[in-house]
Amino acid sequence: MRLMPTAAITLALLAPALAPAVAAVPPAEAAGGGYSATIRRTEYGIPHITAKDYGGLGFGYGYAFAQDNLCTLASWVVTLRGERSRYFGPKAESDDPVRPVSNLAGDVYYKSVAASGVVRRLLARPAPVGPSDELRRLVDGYVAGYNRYLEDTGVANLPDPTCRGKAWVGPITATDMWNNLLDLARMTSSSSFKEAVTGIAEPEPEGPQPKPAAGSNAWALGRQATRGGGGMVLADPHFPWQGIRRFYQVQLTIPGVLDVSGGSLYGTPVVQIGHNAKVAWTHTVSHAQHFTVYRLKLADGHSYTVDGRAEPMGEQEVEVTLPDGTVSGHTLLTSRYGPVLAIGRTDEAAYALADANAANLRAADEWLAMARAGSLDELRTAQRTYQGMPFVHTLATDASGTAYFADTSLVPHVTDAEAERCARPSPVPGLDAYVLDGSTSACLWGRDGDAVVPGVFGPGNQPRLVRADYVANSNNTYWMTNPAKPLTGYPEAYGQTGTDLEPRPRVGLDMIAQRLSGADGLGTPGFTLETLQATVRGKRNLTFELMRDDLLKLCRAHPELLDVREACRTLEKWNGRATLDGEGAVLWREFFSRLGRPTKPGEPVFSPWRVPFDPARPLTTPSGLKIDDPTVRQALADAVLRFRSNRIPLTLTPGQAQSYSSIPIPGCTEGEGCFDRVRTGGPLGTDGRYPEVNTGSSFMMAVELTKDGPRTRTVLTYSLSANPASPHHTDQTALFSRGGWVTERFTPAEIAADPRLETVTVHGGH
């Protein structure tokens, strides 16, 4: 740990003999009525924050987070304030890990958000539309704790060289944190349209440039699926490995009020994925629609018509400061629906973005209320009260062993009939959205009586399922949450039914089925915490399993393909697991990735499946390999040529080819049908290495809820600190590489029993 010796901090490195004293509650308040919190760090630097109130809890959390990751949040605050061009240049790429844009495009967008006044208006509203008093105190405390650490340490003395001594590092404000929470809610909607909103776009670099994307696996196992009869949760979010969308592992405790442990996204004072003593939950990104685009019928250059009447567009004047001190001015247009896009405009029409999350700060309160829930019913009440989940499914269970799935995300209230009646052509190819007629109020979003805010579907229209066996999701649509009870009949805005599951969701459901039948070789049927861990780290590659037999038939049927004989022998020996030592795993990836490419420019993507998808058999189709198609043979020959021309061994393993901070990383890709997927920053290099892993399993949590309390195993794949000088920069990454887990310390006695425990009490003024 890095602790500053100031009068505000009391450090006590407790010897094991004194460990039981750790359970004591810290002083109620610091001298003068300020904040007070105790930070206890266990293995891998994991902080356990305890305070007597929400302000103190936020203070301790903000202080602990700043110790580990101040530079990441400091950089993001520059982004949220629209000041990146000033410090880093307008053409440099922003620090958005999900969809980076040029700094100028990002600055204009975030300046426009600030100018809209949306956060100010929400803060003036009472809960549930505005933040609760508890959340406001938590945010204020978090800001004060972060700033206290910065004041104690000094910018010139920060331990992270990334931002040490930098002019762009300074105190943060509560407004910065509210803006971060709003931007998180908009992550898959408005925030993904920065270039379209601002009209500022840089030319795409040559060659494929895959961007990190959010994904996830999640299981909630009920009493019929577990050996112990209680509930279990697997959390396996696939979020970026760099930047502000990383998870930070933390426990937050106010004795008698709140005690939650789990993963908390950087710069947020609440746990998004986690558990308390009785309830556990996780999330996956939903396929539901979270925005629509409205086609505006222009009356002239600055007005449009609705029901035959002209409405003027609003104008936002935005100024961005450049490195030389000059100002770049921009005018953005707005409409009743939202910002007018700079793309697709003609003399007759323009397009506006309507975002269901445009004014959503409720998610943080919802997560806070879920963390206080004492049962699954109370968790569901929290979701109905706040209705703030921005873009994710929820999967949860409790100690009774009831499994719950719901898509409670904010979805525009557009019925199937309205979508068909109001549909208009997309302004640009590939814009995946409902494009509706904005010239008539008959195409406005509707309203449900049980919805907290207008324009979105209420709880009564949301897909949900409660089971005693299990619910599962791997970013597939809701319909195959449990194959024994397919979900249908919900508005298409939540996603389609009867569609191809894709390989990753299929392998996840198969893993559950094999464990429940005992066919996976892990012993007696049913899940224990140990078999859950073993199941999810199995590294199965489903496409190889489904195509292996046909591929070997191809090898035997075409002996004239001399150049691929060694490749065939390699793949025949491979066990289909993307382990560090999996000889054949990378060869398969390179072959399979070539199967999915268009055979010629402009042609459709080739489907390699011998048996096409059949909606009546969603768990077993598609399957097989089209070995009679010359495209398949050519893909294999091309993959082998790639290896040989660069003198890369065909037995190249994941451990040799992919890494993070020089640590080998197991796993394979989404398209291959890998449950614990990885994504790298680009294609295989001529040196036989991929660019560094940038997305994949992030905060993994396996928790069993028992009558004696939770039993939990976790691993934070990229580790706790982004600071390269920290001892916790890659320690859990090395653990993840070798298949290990951290045994969570949740109770005061478990925390006190850690012989490496470090404890500090922090104080600060309001």
Automatic annotation (TrEMBL):
* Signal peptide (residue range): 1-23
Entry keyword Electron transport: no
* UniProt-listed InterPro entries: Ntn_hydrolases_N (IPR029055), Penicillin_amidase_A-knob (IPR043147), Penicillin_amidase_dom1 (IPR023343), Penicillin_amidase_N_B-knob (IPR043146), S45 (IPR002692)
Q: Which Pfam families match?
A: Penicil_amidase
Which Gene Ontology MF annotations are present? hydrolase activity, acting on carbon-nitrogen (but not peptide) bonds, in linear amides
Gene Ontology terms: biological process: antibiotic biosynthetic process
User: What are the alphabetically sorted keywords of the record?
Assistant: Hydrolase, Signal, Zymogen
Q: Its family?
A: Belongs to the peptidase S45 family.
Write down what this protein is called: Peptidase S45
Species of provenance: Microbispora triticiradicis
